[in-house]
Amino acid sequence: MRTLLLTGIFVVVLPIGCAPLPDGPFDTDEAGPTNVNTRLIVESVQISGQGSAKLSDPLRSELGEFAGKNFDQPLLERLADRIKKELHAPEVRMHVVKGDIPDHVIVNFEIGVEREKRFDLDLARFLYHSKQGWSGQGHATVNIHENAFSFGMVSDGDRLSERYAGIQAGFERRHVFMDRLQLRFDFSSYHEQWNQTTLLDAAPGDIYRTRTQFSPTATVVILEPLVVSFGVDFARYRLSLPVAKTESSNAVVSTLRYHQRWGSAGDEGEHDIRASYSVRAGTQILESDPVFTRHETQARYRFRRGHQDLSIGFLAGKISGLAPLFERFVLGNAETLRGWNKFDLDPLGASRVVHGSIDYVYRGFLVFYDTGAVWDRPADREQKQSLGLGCKKSGFQLAVAFPVRAGIVSPVFYAGMNF
Amino acid sequence: MRIRTIKPWWVIAAFLSGLAFAMFAEELILSTHESRLEFAAPRVHFLVGKPLERLRNASEVPFVFKITLWSGTRTHILREVPARFVVSYDLWEEKFSVTKLVTPRRTARHLTDNAAEAWCLQEMSQDVTGVSATEPLWARLEIRAEDSRESGVPFGRGNITDSGINLTSLIEIFSRPAATTQPHWQIETGPVTLDELRRGRRRG
Q1: What is the ipTM of this complex?
Q2: If interface means Cβ-Cβ distance under 8 Å, which residues of chain B face chain A?
């Protein structure tokens, strides 16, 4: 009944939510440009300021293409936005001055110096899932001379087989001796809540009531698109046994990340590839109670052109040994096998996972297809599929997803941002 | 009994200060032309400061004008008329161009700053057919420069990043008073009747 109600709300809300946002603050019609400078020709486009040398070749060549064309303020402002986004610059100002040739102008994009925000608040994740309920995560960060101190709160019932709620604190030093090295220390303390299905399936020693983690990591930029992080993760969790017992899961962690982007969303299309491989090894050298090795690889390719946005994702993982539940793989949430309930697929999570997804967005309207499997023994491996539709705009997502299976159609509704 | 006399220099000082106030006060001048009520505000300059800075950087700057007319009593609003103008400044000609966003559009080009301002006000004239010639009228002119970009939009692109909604930016937007983000001007005049205006009497 609740699902039907939510689907009804979804059907009403979807067309409203997906309505395209206006591009500009004022109307324009076919009667021609309102800016008299559109008659002027761009003599040259320059870029100056800190980090301008890091601008990608495609964007730089796109800047050059403006030379010889009529001055187009909205187009140049969009270009300034893209420079800002690409260079992660706090501000990109556009200065237009008379050129050397009559009726020509020179456009200069000046990259503003990063003003360190002393205090920052971020709502990093917010989600409502009709099966898992609410999840949210927010952070406050204080920056002092390239040192970032953050404090946050989280309640997440979506990502793992448990709902974990608690606090997160962190310290980050962005440049240590050189630009290529950064250090991070993360601390978190959670209280766990478990679904009844998980409690029924789990062994008494699997379930824990609280979990505390401390994780110092270093990140090194090897070559510009290739980044490696390494460190350790110390986790202590109190088991829900009649006799209180605390166990430790101490692992060596290492992650290799690759991120490359090329092209332009305007004309030929923008390509974006992100890939990562991470390994976590719980070892007795660090006095870990569970001894395990967890491999996970993720990749996502994204292609954007005009109003179209195509995204193809892949995830695979394997755990050997006996890992605690928070390390196990989960499918059937707001990011994977959307439409399925994680507690129906594997309430304890699994030691093996393969997942693929295709998302296509046109003018904010989203359709997607997910497929994947989680299993512990090869005999349990069963491929599941799901389909969904919704809308996606500026980080917000509203969708209804259906598991592909015979029998009862039980859609899952979810809405939120940044998940 | 002592008779108190007013010293002549007090009279002169009062006259001069009144004259100075009249000269420097922002004023809305009403006049009639046939059945239309026209507005002029020679001392109000909105092509100045930040908007002018943006114009001289080849940007166009939208302005919202609003005329409010009261008739009979100050509580009876006869008419509220908003209009939008987009001003731009030709970098080579060093002249202004103004477009009134109505259908069909009306545009005036090659204007000086004063002429551009006057043209906008001229475009705000109102038909007062049906308004009694002896009825007192009050008028208010409001001018507001709009941000050309979406910096003020709470869920604009700049406020949503890969790491989520930046609450600091949103707090900044909502805590900023409108006066600091949007240059604006407001002047009023009245009461005045159409008869008085037709007889050539103008009030500031």
Answers
A1: 0.72
A2: 57-60, 62, 84, 86, 88-92, 96-97, 99, 101, 103-105, 107, 109, 146-150, 155, 157, 160, 162-168, 171
Q: How confident is the model at residue A267 (pLDDT cuts 50, 70, 90)?
A: low
pLDDT at position A52 is 76
Place of tokens 């009979």: B72
Mean predicted confidence (pLDDT) in A320-338: 94
Query: Is the model's pLDDT at A25 over the cut of 50?
Result: no
Q: B112-168 pLDDT, tens per residue?
A: 999 999 999 999 999 988 888 899 999 999 998 887 554 444 444 444 444 455 566
Global pTM reads 0.60
Q: Does A312 touch chain B (CB under 8 A)?
A: no
- Give Cα separations from A189 to A149, A237, A299, B95 (angstroms): 16, 10, 29, 64
What are A284-298's pLDDT values in tens digits?
899 999 999 999 999
Per-residue pLDDT tens for B39-76?
A: 998 888 999 999 999 999 999 999 989 999 999 888 89
Token pair 């005049």: residue: B189
Q: Which of A26, A37, A92, A419 to mutate to test the interface with B (most CBs of B within 10 A)?
A: A37
A–B: how many Cβ contacts below 8 A? 97
